[in-house]
Structure to design on (271 residues):
């Protein structure tokens, strides 16, 4: 409850939620155990991808395999070996950092041609990765060393990133769920719990970094112009619909773009 009050006050769009319980991982990849998993696995949505130094160390690269993801969320490596202390039913298994693009950017993706849509998603992905690199660089844990509790830098993170393109109401909404696994390795080889205070308390920082990178990427890729940011968040200049269409490439010569039959069909409604 306290987390939700803070988020409303800060008007952030990079939100952090603790992922707890024995069914935590199933929410993302196993529809047989969690009904909402079908939302993440609907046809046409891409599989999750692995990000982070720790994931690479565990041999996790490219697309997320559901079995490997569930193993990490259960506190085990992909081979089934226990990673540090075993979880109980109330343990935090990970942290879901959700990145939501401004509505006008989602509209740009929905009404744009393949080039514009691809560049829009690439800009979003680049912004997400910029934030995750920041999170990984500042990741720490607490460890007892020589009889005292010390803050220790984590040796990287394991993060599964699930990109989605619509809301549960099927409106265009480009967003990504970056699930940061709660177990981290320290230099002496131990696996301990991630100290999540940085990401939980700095949600406004994460949001600002995401949006500033997104704006920079879209301006460089498509020449998009922006309204003045409010609370670190800006829409495409001209408003959600008009501004998104203004950012689209000019129609080819001879094309009657004003005719209804020539207007782009929103991407999320295409067969």
């Amino acid at each position: 409850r306290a987390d939700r009050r803070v988020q409303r006050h800060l008007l952030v769009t990079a939100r952090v939620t603790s992922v707890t319980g024995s069914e935590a991982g199933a929410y993302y990849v196993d529809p047989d155990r969690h009904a909402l998993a079908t939302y993440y696995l609907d046809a046409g949505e891409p599989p999750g991808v692995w990000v982070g130094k720790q994931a690479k160390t565990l041999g996790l690269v490219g697309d997320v395999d559901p079995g490997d993801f569930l193993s990490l969320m259960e506190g085990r490596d992909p081979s089934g070996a226990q990673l540090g202390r075993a979880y109980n039913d109330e343990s935090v298994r990970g942290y879901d950092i959700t990145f939501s693009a401004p509505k006008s950017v989602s509209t740009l993706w929905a009404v744009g041609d393949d080039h514009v849509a691809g560049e829009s998603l690439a800009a979003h992905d680049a912004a997400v990765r910029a934030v995750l690199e920041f999170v990984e660089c500042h990741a720490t844990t607490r460890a007892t060393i020589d009889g005292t509790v010390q803050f220790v830098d984590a040796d990287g993170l394991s993060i599964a990133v699930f990109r989605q393109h619509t809301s549960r109401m099927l409106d265009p909404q480009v967003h990504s769920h970056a699930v940061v696994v709660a177990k981290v390795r320290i230099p002496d080889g131990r696996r301990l719990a991630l100290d999540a205070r940085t990401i939980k308390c700095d949600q406004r920082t994460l949001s600002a970094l995401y949006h500033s990178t997104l704006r920079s990427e879209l301006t460089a890729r498509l020449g998009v112009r922006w309204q003045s940011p409010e609370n670190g968040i800006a829409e495409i200049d001209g408003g959600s619909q008009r501004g998104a269409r203004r950012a689209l490439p000019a129609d080819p010569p001879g094309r009657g773009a004003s005719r209804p039959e020539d207007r782009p069909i929103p991407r999320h409604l295409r067969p």
User: Anything to note?
Assistant: DSSP finds ten helices and nine strands in the chain. The first strand starts at residue 14 and ends at 20. The beta strands are 14-20, 49-51, 92-100, 140-145, 148-153, 159-166, 172-181, 183-185, 191-195.
